[in-house]
Write a structure and sequence with these properties.
47% of the residues lie in helices and 11% in strands. The chain is of the alpha+beta class. Strands 3, 4, 5, 6, 7, 8 and 9 form a seven-stranded antiparallel beta sheet that branches. A hairpin with a 7-residue loop joins strand 5 and strand 6. Helix 9 runs antiparallel to helix 10. It is extended, with a radius of gyration of 31 Å.
């Protein structure tokens, strides 16, 4: 597969090199091919001498490429129903014209490659906000097509997960990266990328033919700019004390926003690390006045609340309790923190405390459906445990009565409080 580096000039693009660890739009394409373990064979135009091949001199040869073989191979990687749902007839012959489909689409597109005719863009749906910043992490979906084929040869939609890459690190095809760098959140666009900015002269057998122009249909789901947080990370420890609170808060918010995006993507462990990093920055900062202290506490409240939510999702209930109490120390009436605390207590089996906390939260927000549902779950679990205890006691009494005379329900000094409670419930 073709390994293309980001930031190469157009002249350098003409001399693409082949690497065993090449990228095909992204690493998932290569992973899927490895899973299939399909042998890929080619036919040589001319026979070769094995002696020449084995000696130091070596030999050169040309490959006879079977274009039909490519189209047959590419359909084997995805579920046929998924392929059908992602068909795009814009890659087929243009109607009522002698132009090819790509020529027709290019006539309605904008050249992004400074007039070199290498990458073209057509906006299908307008986005909102600002254009993606350099070095941002982008989350996007795409389908990739070859001309005269309405079936995608690669697709995040058919893998049921979006792609997440950082711009400027070489993890994307140059043409696709150039296109993404022009997009806004929520924007949908079509990019036509020439081989020089895609898979090069050799393509990516068996799924991409040599010298192939690719059509990418891309939706930018979101982006996060980590640059401000990373700029702060690059400041030596000895110099950080000189940074103003406003500058520090920019780095804190960058980490917090990054963590929020990771939470949306269900990458909770990574999100929690980002939240904790933001907390450390705030806890170690030097405050100049009461106003800065007030702003610090407001952000810490949000971070601790998010940390207790993340901890619950990871099953780290004791940590969730710690973070909940820290949040409640800043705002005793914070319902999100109360809910998270009640949830953690419930999962640890502390039903009494869980009910106390959740009733308190419900009093603050009577119409909160999440709180109502968690209280209902608490009731169900308590009833289930009571029934299990009764059944356990019934079996214990059944075995005792079969071997010895029945005893009264009087409490003896050797009986545990739990056993006494079980007997009391039965009575």
């Amino acid at each position: 597969m073709t390994n293309v580096g980001v930031g190469q000039s157009s002249d350098m693009m003409e001399n693409l090199e082949i690497s065993e660890n090449a990228n095909v739009a992204n690493s998932d394409l290569e992973d899927e091919e490895e899973e299939h373990n399909d042998d890929f064979t080619v036919t040589l135009k001319q026979p070769i001498d094995l002696d020449d091949l084995c000696n130091e001199k070596g030999c050169s040869f040309e490959v006879e490429l079977d274009e039909e073989g490519y189209s047959e191979e590419q359909n084997n990687y995805f579920n046929p129903d998924d392929v059908y749902r992602n068909l795009d007839d814009s890659c087929l012959q243009a109607d009522d014209t002698d132009e090819t489909s790509y020529d027709y689409l290019i006539s309605k597109s904008t050249d992004l490659s400074d007039g070199q005719g290498l990458v073209f863009k057509q906006v299908l749906k307008q986005g909102s906000g600002t254009v993606v910043p350099p070095s941002a992490y982008v989350t996007f979906h795409y389908n990739a097509y070859m001309e005269m084929s309405d079936e995608p040869f690669d697709s995040t939609y058919m893998r049921n997960r979006s792609e997440r890459k950082r711009l400027g690190t070489g993890g994307l095809l140059p043409g696709l990266e150039l296109g993404l760098a022009t997009m806004k959140k929520g924007e949908e666009a079509r990019f036509i990328v020439r081989p020089e900015m895609a898979y090069g002269k050799l393509g990516a057998p068996p799924r991409v033919m040599p010298n192939t122009t690719i059509l990418f249909k891309v939706t930018l789901c979101n982006y996060v700019d980590y640059s401000q947080a990373e700029d702060f990370d690059n400041i030596p420890e000895t110099e950080r004390g000189k940074v103003s609170f406003d500058q520090l808060l920019v780095a804190v918010n960058a980490n917090r926003e990054a963590a929020s995006e990771l939470m949306k993507e269900k990458r909770t462990f990574e999100a929690k690390k980002r939240y904790k990093k933001a907390v450390r920055l705030l806890e170690n900062c030097r405050l100049q006045n009461e106003e800065e202290e007030k702003r610090q506490k407001a952000v810490l409240l949000k971070l601790y609340t998010n940390l207790c939510i993340a901890s619950n999702q990871l099953g780290e209930f004791k940590q969730a309790i710690t973070f909940s109490r820290l949040a409640l120390g800043y705002d005793p009436g914070n319902t999100k923190a109360l809910y998270a605390l009640g949830k953690a207590k419930l999962n640890l089996g502390d039903f009494v405390e869980a009910r106390t906390v959740l009733v308190r939260a419900q009093h603050l927000q009577p119409g909160n459906a999440d709180i109502v549902n968690l209280l209902r779950k608490l009731d169900q679990q308590q009833k289930a445990i009571e029934l299990d205890e009764k059944e356990l006691y019934r079996r214990m009494m059944g075995r005792n009565s079969a071997s010895q005379p029945a005893k009264s329900f009087s409490t003896t000094p050797t009986e545990s409080s739990t056993f006494q409670e079980m007997k009391a419930k039965l009575v």
